[in-house]
Amino acid sequence: MRTILLLIALSPTLLRAETDLESSPALSLSFPTKKGLLHQLQIKKTDSQGRPLWKNVGPAILGTGNPWSTLQPDGEYRLHMPSREWALVWSDEFNSDRIDFGKWEREENNYGGGNNERQAYRTDPKYSYVKDGSLNIAVYRDSHTTSDGKTQPYSSARLRTMNRGDWTFGRFEIRAKLPDGQGIWPAIWMMPTNSPYGGWAAGGEIDIVESRGNKVTETLGALHFGGKWPDNVHLDHTYQFPGKDAAEDFHVYALEWNAEEISWFVDGVRWKTRKASEWWSASARQNPSAPYDRPFHLILNVAVDGRFFEKEDQRADRIPASQFPQVMQVDYVRVYQWAR
């Protein structure tokens, strides 16, 4: 870890905000930053033995070369530059009583994702909500018809961070518990936000977690790339749970992505790595990192049936009514970037 770049002892008298509340004094802090480097605000605490301990405050910020200012509660702070480690830059712990729409957008779509899926993605809170510290994405056997007459027999939700959280490279960590019904397809994945390489799948797709209905003893990861459909290709791979399956318990799913390789992890175990030599872009053959060198955003959804099950004897219509809703629970989503 790099030594501390800045240590600023703060005087509450000098740095207290002009409008001061006696019950909650605030400090107006300003620190210089270095352009392109990550900076972490920390507050001084003490451990159980009374020794000084610096704790992170919020996510790391990317320096612009200009001063960075913030208001914080009374205390002693410093701005630390992490080095050669993963620094948290974005997260949602789902600890409030509602979805944070500064971070997520609910999508509305009745067209089965191009895979003959049978769900309507709806914005009604019934299908995506926060409860007991987890995001819930719920599938109901609710038919829904759009204004143009398109009808789907199931209703679900799809949330994305597009234009709210978009990253090139990083570590993406999600703790989740998945449903186990026939034909139910939970997915945690990434799509390009504004790719110069073309439409799907020329711009790439990264699948962090996919579960194929009741086959919850395994999870899948995949990359989609190449040319625009139908000239696209994909690489997929399967992980077998050694203990409790994806529906019996929460597991931590992670993906580490850089220009040279993309790796998948479950509960801290790296189980698959794909090298840049394995992927390519039809429109940028000269660029070995394309299409995975542009900003991508996160997507959380639960689909129903479709081509994902074309080689499986599964169908959601066989699920007893008493087993609805089928729910994916997400305890947290955390995004890290590598501090140089």
Please tell me about this protein's structure.
The protein has 340 residues and is mainly beta. It has two domains: 12-83, no CATH class; 91-339, Jelly Rolls, CATH 2.60.120. The protein is 1% helix and 44% strand. It has one helix and 26 strands. The strands form six sheets. Strands 7, 10, 11, 17, 22, 23, 24 and 26 form an eight-stranded antiparallel β-sheet that branches. Strands 8, 15, 16, 18, 19, 20, 21 and 25 form an eight-stranded antiparallel β-sheet that branches. Strands 2, 3, 4 and 6 form a four-stranded antiparallel β-sheet that branches. A hairpin with a 7-residue loop joins strand 19 (205-210) and strand 20 (218-226). The radius of gyration is 23 Å and the shape is globular.
Following the backbone from N to C, one meets helices and strands in this order, namely HEEEEEEEEEEEEEEEEEEEEEEEEEE
The secondary structure category is mainly beta
Main sheet, how many strands, which sense, barrel?
8 strands, antiparallel
From the N-terminal CA to the C-terminal CA, the straight-line distance is 10 Å
Q: pLDDT below 50 for ≥5 consecutive residues: which ranges?
A: 1-22
CATH topology grouping of the largest domain: Jelly Rolls
Number of domains: 2
Rg on CA atoms, Å = 23 Å
Q: What is the averaged pLDDT score?
A: 93
Shape: globular
- What is the share of helical residues? under 10%
Q: What is the number of beta strands?
A: 26
CATH class of the largest domain: Mainly Beta
Provide the β-strand percentage band. 35-45%
What would you say the CATH architecture of the largest domain is?
A: Sandwich
Helix count equals 1
